[in-house]
Hints:
This protein has 329 residues and is of the alpha/beta class. The chain has twelve helices and 14 strands.
Amino acid sequence: MVRAADLAYRALYRGVLSRLPEQAAISLGQWGLRTLPIDRLPIFRNADPRLAVALGGVRLPNPLILSSMYYDTRILYRAMGLGFGAVTTKSITRLPRPGHPRPNLVRIETAEGSGFVNCNGFKNPGLEAYRAALAALPRRGILIVAAAGESVEEYVDVVTGLAEFADLIELNISSPNTRLVYESSQRPAELGKLFQAVRAATAKPVIVKVSPDYRQTNEEAIVPAALDAGIRVVHCGNARRVEEPRLSQRAGGLSGPALLAATLDNVRRLRDRFGADLDIIAGGGIDAPSKARAALAAGATACACFTGFITRGPILVRLILDELAEGRK
Ligand SMILES: Cc1cc2nc3c(=O)[nH]c(=O)nc-3n(C[C@H](O)[C@H](O)[C@H](O)COP(=O)(O)O)c2cc1C
């Protein structure tokens, strides 16, 4: 049954979704997630208790996290029912943002497989509207609320306003599509102040999501500043900044399997350097069971995916969890 669902989605992706113009494929995919009650099918879940992990002191039923991309709470609710150990909201900002104009997402074929380049630019409804949306979200899984901003005050406002709905909070300091956010990694002293201010603003566990483009600064300054502030979860990492003339911004964030080698290397280096002080989420390029296993073997506490959820479909969750459960026997 699982294998049949895997083959069926591969055929759907190859035959239909990957042939539609990107925007039409996104709309169709999101319509499907909003309206089709696929979460009622037990096929997607693996409730093996041996899969449970602790992340920032919070128990996740399994270590697979849906990465930040969706703000629609109907989709987040559905994803919680598709077997993920936790799901992450889109990065939310203080005021609503329309995002960058289209084209803001294109497919890319790399030697490692299918990925995307996006310049989404934090399209989101803003803090006030999102407070109302999260208040109405029935909870059936662990929720990571992601915050972004262009000043310490903006991050603190978003965190303060949304913390009550979150099991964990993720600070996005690494999106390649918003200059002030992306370039904040060049100012680690300011990031240190941000971490202290956010730590003081909430008792919830905080995750810092770092960029694969700033490996050395992450290791030498950003992760130490997070630990100093009492933040002990790092998500490495976000999409990688690349030039892309097809996008409205002529550049964007590369996601998908081309990121995997750097993700594994970064996880290993962070684990070696910081030992058990740090919980690490491996993100970037995890689109197959063997890749999730490799991320955990490299030292990650949990792993996150977005591109794989699109290119391999919701059945990827079950495939990954089955393989991880097999490894824990
Ligand atoms: C269209 C799109 C929108 C995204 N929006 C966000 C965002 O709002 N905040 C964030 O931290 N990451 C965002 N990401 C990055 C993903 O969460 C993830 O970190 C990245 O795609 C690498 O993982 P992957 O290779 O599994 O896709 C976005 C990625 C895509 C493709």
